[in-house]
TrEMBL record:
<dbReference type="GO" id="GO:0016579">
    <property type="term" value="P:protein deubiquitination"/>
</dbReference>
<dbReference type="InterPro" id="IPR013083">
    <property type="entry name" value="Znf_RING/FYVE/PHD"/>
</dbReference>
<dbReference type="InterPro" id="IPR050185">
    <property type="entry name" value="Ub_carboxyl-term_hydrolase"/>
</dbReference>
<dbReference type="InterPro" id="IPR041432">
    <property type="entry name" value="UBP13_Znf-UBP_var"/>
</dbReference>
<dbReference type="GO" id="GO:0007154">
    <property type="term" value="P:cell communication"/>
</dbReference>
<feature type="binding site">
    <location>
        <position position="200"/>
    </location>
    <ligand>
        <name>Zn(2+)</name>
    </ligand>
</feature>
<dbReference type="InterPro" id="IPR038765">
    <property type="entry name" value="Papain-like_cys_pep_sf"/>
</dbReference>
<feature type="active site" description="Proton acceptor">
    <location>
        <position position="762"/>
    </location>
</feature>
<keyword id="KW-0479">Metal-binding</keyword>
<dbReference type="InterPro" id="IPR018200">
    <property type="entry name" value="USP_CS"/>
</dbReference>
<keyword id="KW-0378">Hydrolase</keyword>
<feature type="domain" description="USP">
    <location>
        <begin position="314"/>
        <end position="800"/>
    </location>
</feature>
<protein>
    <recommendedName>
        <fullName>Ubiquitin carboxyl-terminal hydrolase</fullName>
        <ecNumber>3.4.19.12</ecNumber>
    </recommendedName>
</protein>
<feature type="binding site">
    <location>
        <position position="183"/>
    </location>
    <ligand>
        <name>Zn(2+)</name>
    </ligand>
</feature>
<comment type="similarity">
    <text>Belongs to the peptidase C19 family.</text>
</comment>
<keyword id="KW-0645">Protease</keyword>
<feature type="domain" description="UBA">
    <location>
        <begin position="676"/>
        <end position="716"/>
    </location>
</feature>
Length: 802
């Protein structure tokens, strides 16, 4: 007890702002349920497993710890099931899947000799008792973050809905045959909830859509609320996207606020009358069948998967819509670059020694923790089947593991990101790009230590206008996004036969809609095929003309990620998913996609005079984009980054980059005069492995500030780096700063998506490992029995000579 009193100055009583970790070790996946329990530092309130608490003592000098050990309680045969009160999994009040209950025991431990003192005990100093009681009583930081992420968004009620004016003008809304009152439009119709008028919606940039009659009606009358006809349904589950749910919520709110009027008539008609939707249409039966088929096929449901465990076969617990993270990380850490960087070549001790005082917020530490958790096999423990009472059968293993919960990693990688920090489903592609960007940021000036570099490659676009002159634009990317040429489907006859016989099928027939099959090589050829661009601004002609664009790769990365553009916009600008199969071979050769650079006899397009004063963007393109509702600055960047190729190209660029972190940063104009460059600063940047020309340009653009120049290099302003003309006199273009080799690749793994949108549904990974295909479905890890290789969303290829 005297020893403890001598260390009272190193014991702190937690304050309300302190984060207390007591659920999981901050450098491993040990928990209070682990064999050695968990040790909570009574000064920093960080938690450590038995094998790692000594490292913290060596680094911090903090000697006093609260040791927490949880043991399983005996299971009562008549234990009642708890009713969930929170939409969450694995936390108090949430769904617990009948998991066993545990009982916690506590003791005080003093390092380095591991002297133990019982708790509770009246002999302990009051400060220690208060500090320990506070740690025990307070909710751990891990659970606080999880509960906060699950908290529903604040519902915003329209002020118009609460006090909606509705006219008793005798208008009756017909059950069908709707038509715009101002024109003959029969689609994209909106019902005004004040006067019952039915008018067409906005006109799209290409002339499709409506004629703006609903918008113009609002401008004249100021009647604020309208609903799109055809979106109201009695079945909330049938409302397949957040937009429809939002409309329904508004309508229901109005329903409770207004007792009579047009709305009641509309609601009564749609929700109560027999001519409302009572059975599936043919299209809906197709969708229902295809969706069920996707779930079963991609997850290999109904197949008795052979459970796999050990190093490299560790499942990741679903934290709540975190399958996009789990699937992506399983493939990423199957690459040699990430495996070497964060597992083979960096121990947990090395990462902890260089981490800041709080390793829970250090991405390098959490990446190393995740790598060791996934690849060491320490936590790859097969789960056992449970009976109805929740009692495990030790003899029957399942493909579902106990796994590891990547909470701390998710918290760090998603910090300050408005979407990934929530518990909502996300796009695996967007997460992958965000992930590699963050990894690159923590390895500045150290390309040899940056594993994200193994995914990076160069793209070169060649533009030739009617003058015969050319321009070359180069940029770097981590993914190759491919359009799917449905017109090249290999099963056209089967599709045509189905469409011809579709209308003759009975209403009770099960609709099995054949999907188009497209070869992956056709998708790759589509990327590099010549494309005609209209309204291209030619600096040689000083006018708009037609140009031909072709694209190729300046380098072949160690790992090539192919993104299949299955989510497209239909004619009404409504997102939809393409139901298509991609025939993917095990080996691909893309050597023919190598870009050639400036060829002998080619003449470059002259620089635009307006570029002397900054970046030039076609105002016609900008005005059309702005009329569609886009931000002016975003439109300006879109026009510049597509070389003023036209509205369609700029629109595609906007959709691909609207979530870029620098999308709202102002345009940066290059300086006219050449700023004097401090040679010492230039030499410093060059010593980081940066090319001298790039370093010089960065210093000029940032006024000689070396810190800003470094940021400029790794996060270049839009419109400068990516679209800079870079002529080459050689027969081929090779970027020495990027990995490169031959163009032959082998399929390493793929991530599949189930659902109608990237922001709903489920993600699953399949990886070729140890001579067999393995399915990673959150905690489920097993040998694949029915490989859905043709249903991938992201394909990861490994270069054979890497």
């Amino acid at each position: 007890m005297d020893l403890l009193r001598s260390y009272l100055s190193r014991v702190r009583i937690p304050e309300p702002t302190n984060r207390i970790y007591k659920e999981e070790c901050c450098i491993s996946y040990d928990t209070p349920k682990s064999e050695g329990g968990l040790f909570v530092d009574m000064n920093s309130f960080l938690a450590f497993g038995k094998d790692y608490v000594g490292w913290n003592y060596e680094k911090s000098g903090n000697p006093v710890y609260l040791h927490i050990k949880e043991t399983q309680k005996p299971v009562s045969e008549d234990r009642p099931l708890k009713k969930p009160t929170l939409l969450a999994i694995g936390i108090e009040g949430g769904f617990n899947n009948n998991d066993p209950e545990f009982e916690a025991s506590y003791e005080i431990v003093i390092l380095p000799d591991y002297v133990t003192l019982p708790f509770p005990s009246v002999e302990l100093p009051e400060k220690v008792r208060l500090a320990v009681d506070s740690v025990i009583m307070n909710t751990g930081a891990e659970k606080k973050e999880q509960v906060a992420a699950w908290t529903a968004d604040t519902k915003i009620i329209s002020k118009h809905a609460m006090d909606l004016k509705q006219l008793d003008n005798g208008i009756v809304v017909p059950p069908s045959g709707w038509r715009c009152e101002k024109c003959d439009k029969t689609e994209n119709l909106w019902l005004n909830l004040t006067d019952g008028s039915i008018l067409c919606g906005r006109r799209n940039w290409d002339g499709s859509g409506g004629n703006d009659h609903a918008v113009n009606h609002y401008k004249v009358t100021k009647y604020p609320l309208a609903v799109k006809l055809g979106t109201i349904t009695a079945d909330l589950e049938a409302a397949g996207n957040a937009y429809i749910l939002f409309v329904i919520c508004i309508l229901l709110r109005i329903y409770y606020a207004v007792t009579t009027t047009i709305f009641l008539m509309i609601l009564e008609y749609y929700l109560q009358q027999p001519h409302g939707q009572t059975e599936m249409t043919t299209a809906e039966r197709e969708l229902d069948h295809n969706t069920s088929f996707d779930w079963n096929r991609i997850q290999e449901s109904g197949k008795e998967a052979v459970p796999l465990s050990g190093p490299g076969y560790t499942g990741l617990v679903n934290l709540g819509n975190s399958c996009y993270l789990a699937a992506t990380m399983q493939v990423v850490f199957s690459t040699r670059s990430f495996c070497s960087r964060y597992y083979k070549n960096q121990s947990l001790k090395e990462a902890f020694d260089v981490a800041p005082a709080d390793p829970t917020v250090d991405l390098n530490m959490q990446l190393t923790k995740l790598a060791h958790g996934m690849l060491s096999g320490k936590y790859s423990i097969p789960a056992t089947k449970k009976d109805d009472a929740g009692i495990a059968d030790d003899t029957t293993l399942t493909a579902k593991q106990v796994g590891i919960s990547p909470r701390m990693f998710k918290f760090v990688i998603a910090a300050k990101h408005p979407e990934f920090s929530t518990m909502r489903q996300q796009d695996a592609l967007e997460f992958f790009l965000h992930f590699v960007d963050q990894v690159e940021r923590i390895n500045p000036g150290n390309p040899d230590f940056d594993p994200s570099k193994s995914f990076k490659f160069g793209i070169e676009e060649r533009l030739q206008c009617s003058s015969g002159k050319v321009a070359y634009n180069r940029r770097n990317d981590y993914i190759l996004s491919l359009n799917i040429p449905l017109h090249k489907a290999t099963n056209k006859k089967e599709l045509q036969k189905f469409e011809a016989e579709k209308d003759t099928m009975g209403s009770s027939a099960e609709i099995v809609h054949p999907r188009p099959r497209v070869s992956l090589m056709d998708c790759l050829d589509c990327f590099s095929a010549p494309e005609e661009l209209n309204d291209f601004y030619s600096t040689a002609l000083d006018a708009k003309t037609t140009a031909i664009k072709t694209a190729g790769l300046t380098s072949f990365p160690d790992y090539l990620v192919l993104h299949m553009r299955k989510f497209v916009l239909d004619s009404g600008w409504v997102p939809k998913k393409l139901d298509v199969y991609i025939d993917v071979p095990d080996i691909i050769d893309i050597s023919h996609m190598r870009s050639k650079g400036l060829q002998p006899g080619e003449e470059l397009l002259p620089d635009s005079a307006s570029l002397d004063d900054g970046v030039h963007a076609d105002e016609d393109i900008i005005s059309q984009l702005v009329s569609m509702g886009f931000n002016y600055l975003h439109c300006q960047k879109a026009a510049i980054n597509t070389s003023n190729a036209g509205v369609e190209a700029a629109t595609n660029w906007l959709f691909d980059h609207m979530n870029d972190p620098d999308i709202d940063e102002p345009m940066v104009k290059e300086q006219k005069s050449s700023l004097h460059i401090d040679q010492s600063k230039l030499d410093t940047l060059v010593s980081f492995g940066i090319e001298e020309e790039v370093a010089r340009k960065a210093l000029q653009a940032t006024g000689g500030d070396i810190e800003k120049a470094t940021e400029w290099i790794f996060n270049p302003p839009p419109g400068l780096s990516n679209m800079e003309t870079t002529p080459s006199s050689s027969s081929s273009v090779v970027d020495d700063a990027l990995p490169d080799g031959k163009g032959k690749y082998r399929l390493l793994g793929f991530v599949s998506h189930i659902g109608t949108s990237t922001h709903c549904g489920h993600y699953v990974a399949h990886i070729y490992k140890d001579g067999r295909w393995v399915i990673y479905n959150d905690e489920k890890v097993g040998a694949s029995q029915d490989l859905p290789i043709d249903m991938g969303y992201l394909y990861f290829f490994e270069r054979l000579d890497g």
